[in-house]
Amino acid sequence: MDRDHGPGVRVPEQRAPQQRSAHGADLRFSVLGPVRSWLNGEASPSGSPQQRALLTALLLRDGRTATAAELIDAIWGDEPPSQALATIRTYASRLRKVLGQQTLVSDAGGYAIRADRDALDVNVVRDLAAEAEKARAGGDRAQARALLGKALGLWDGEALASVPGPYAENQRTRLEEWRLQLTETRLDLDLEVGSHAEAVSELTALTAAHPLRERLRELLMIALYRSGRQAEALAVYADTRRLLADELGVDPRPELSQLQQRILQADEELARPTDEPAPAPAPVRPAQLPATVPDFTGRSSFVRELGDRLATAEGSVMAVSALAGIGGVGKTTLAVHVAHQARQHFPDGQLYVDLQGAGARAAEPETVLGAFLRALGTADSAIPDSMDERAALYRSTLDGRRILVLLDNAHDAAQIRPLLPGTAGCAALVTSRVRMVDLAGAHLVDLDVMSPEEALQLFTRIVGEERINSEREAALDVVAACGFLPLAIRIAASRLAARRTWTVSVLAAKLADERRRLDELQAGDLAVKATFELGYGQLEPAQARAFRLLGLADGPDISLAAAAALLNLDVHVAEDLLEALVDTSLVESAAPGRYRYHDLVRLYARSCAERGEEPPEERESALSRLLDFYLATAAGVYALERPGDRAVAHLVGTEHPGLEFANGHEAVDWLYSEADSLLACAHQSASNGMLQRAVDLLCAAKDLAESGANSRQYEITGAALRDAARAAADPRSEARARASLSTVYLVSGRFTLADEEAGHAMELARSTKDPIPACWAPNDRGIIAFYQGRHEEGEEFLQEAIDRYRADGNLVGEASALCNLSRIHVNMDRTASAVELARQGTAIFDGMGLSLRTANGRFALGIALTQAGRPTEALEELDEALRVFQNNRQRLWEGSTHFRMAEAHLADARPARAAQHAEQALALRVIGGEWMRGNVLITLGHALERLGQIDRSHACWTEALAIHEQFGAAEADKVRALLTPVDTV
């Protein structure tokens, strides 16, 4: 049904290998498809089939000479014509005119091709495959996959297409086998990196095309098992065993049988992609470093990265690594741990100093140099007075020695430059809250918070496993409340460890109160708030204001444009402030032009704003400006995506402007990149006296619900706004929120909830005369009735929607409702009117230049044409719709279109193609949620049955039956009939 849009994935154009020959011409040959040649980018005449056979025989000899007898045998085999030799000479003469005398040469009574090795696509594939093998052996699976994908992309259909002769036939078979081997290797890599769901569709098609190839069956079983489809995986084995017995009289190979047993045993190792090799632990040797913590946890990638740099310091001028991050993220702990592990590489000693850069009085470099020189054995009387002289003596003292210097808690690059060694074999580790971007040659490392697994492990090590094992969920709540910040976790764990009468749940409850959380996170001389205050106290007034106000906004991050709107500043001024906050590690740069707070830092920023440093009216104004920015921009996106749709004209106006976009792709990119922050702003505004604008923002961002990409957060936000509107006795906002909720419930297949919300929205709209819910709600109720088999009722709802849209002058909405009504008529066996209604809707969309909406119309038209017994026409419409949905990121629409293409292929007696499209629909997901997924499984089962994969088809139907029984759907009876054997007399 008509619900959606967004941008997609473009398939790169396949190109033949491009090389410049030794003779100066750009000469290329392709045999992985039709046999072709190019000279300086221009396609050369290919000649007759026999002439192409001669060229093939020469190209595939890797520059070796082929005698005339060998060429005659290659082209004609045992039955050459009487003038075969003369014919060979004629073909060679023609090829020489095309390729040049230096390329096709006569040699010892035969012929040879002299060209650069990489001029032939087969050689390019060989090289790419070899590089892929090397990358895989080195653990770089992503690079190996990319190289194999590039290699396979050089095939353009069947190799040596239409080339006659026994030699070409043998080579064609060899090249096809090679292609399959490379494909199997690439699919194996897909599974190793966790892309099992995406691989199922391709493997289903390949096993249908090559049913006796056991390796493909093995990969398909693994892909299905890792996708949670254990029954289908076992069914593949059953189908394979039966097929091999019937066709060859043999059993499956041992590897396949062992795989079946592992699946039967629910092998956990099999369910996981291949792990990366564990890093080799660095040896530990003590020196003048602080003691490392006994419960050091996680950070393995950073330990490996920094350890590798220190291990190679002997051969470099000087290795400098600078760690930056917010207070409490564990910079010092990590640096000390790494330094201890690297001590064996610095047998001449390790130096350490706390530079106190986060405090009011940072250590003076000359004082530190004096301490370092004494530690290195320099007498007090020999230590100069000036900093420059001390630095020079320091570097001279280190010459020829291998020393590691740990400069902890640095203020800035100027403080540490005099403290850096200057000779080969020495290295420096620096920690700071400031990113050392102005430290020449430094290896910069940005340290983030722990992963949830690492955080829980650290918490468990401090508290003890016996207390955590029984309250694992509460422990996860605690580390999440700590924002996975190591210092906060250590404080929380220490408090719990010191209070044996507390349970983990007690601590979790205390930390659940955001207003008290920072006060709870202190133990002894450790306090999270005090750590943040050190950094905040060093900010300039404008930076401090930006820090406080930006912390008010909910959401995972904020874009530069949104931050500028909130701060009411020019974008360039706002960027300077934000980058300054990033340099102090109080704010993180999530991506170019995007910024975020750590959860605890955000709480601290808000506490600063709320303790009197920002008046209430300024805090409210900042959030109001942010809401205006999102609403104005989202409304612009809606208008750009749906020209002529009147809904945007009924949204409340804004005082502050939003962004403008040059085209629809930019607009959609913005909407999806801002989705989480935009919805968080709408949710937050429900309680800030900005309800109507918040609800209208939800309406303007309707694409987020329809695409399925952000449907869960959209639903939570919609429910909060609905409840707030009802509490405020605001029927206009309540109706719009309910109409928006209806959409997200409908897309996910929760039809009862969708119908309930749409029904309330219709009732409220009758009193408010609001055209948005008055149009949207009956359209949704018509779709719901269609899905639930209430076709006459659905027809009434959709006719009401059409009338409402027409009364509002909304041609786009009218066309959508017409396409939806077409779907109803399909199920009422009124295929002629169904086709006509879909054509009417598509014509309206097309006439308005709405490519995405035209795709919605083509989708409906494709379904109608399939039911009308015209699958070829249906596939033309659906294929065009699919292309548009892919380009607009409409993942659910893309999946739904694959499903309808599967139905059309099945109707056209092409079960292998049907199975492939059905698998893609399952991988992408479809509109209608689990209920519609059950229908996809039914279609997939039909396709597999026609391919002879009986056990797997029954596994699909069994899963579909469980889904439809859960929903109480009428389809359950049809599936039971498919699974029940028919008695024969």
Secondary structure topology:
Blueprint: E1 27-30, E2 36-39, E3 42-43, H1 49-59, E4 66-67, H2 68-76, H3 84-99, E5 104-107, E6 110-113, H4 121-137, H5 141-152, H6 166-192, H7 196-209, H8 214-226, H9 230-247, H10 254-264, H11 268-271, H12 300-311, E7 319-324, H13 331-341, E8 350-354, H14 365-375, H15 387-398, E9 404-410, H16 413-416, E10 427-432, E11 443-446, H17 452-463, H18 465-468, H19 472-481, H20 486-497, H21 504-512, H22 514-520, E12 522-523, E13 526-527, H23 528-536, H24 541-550, E14 558-559, H25 560-567, H26 571-583, E15 588-591, E16 594-596, H27 599-613, H28 616-641, H29 664-673, H30 675-685, H31 691-700, H32 702-707, H33 711-727, H34 731-747, H35 751-768, H36 771-787, H37 791-807, H38 811-827, H39 831-847, H40 851-867, H41 871-887, H42 891-907, H43 911-924, H44 929-946, H45 950-967, H46 971-979
Helix pairs in contact: 1-3, 4-5, 5-6, 6-7, 6-8, 7-8, 7-43, 8-9, 8-10, 9-10, 9-45, 12-13, 14-15, 17-19, 17-20, 19-21, 22-27, 24-26, 24-27, 25-26, 25-28, 28-29, 28-30, 28-31, 30-31, 30-33, 31-33, 31-34, 33-34, 34-35, 34-36, 35-36, 36-37, 36-38, 37-38, 38-39, 38-40, 39-40, 40-41, 40-42, ...
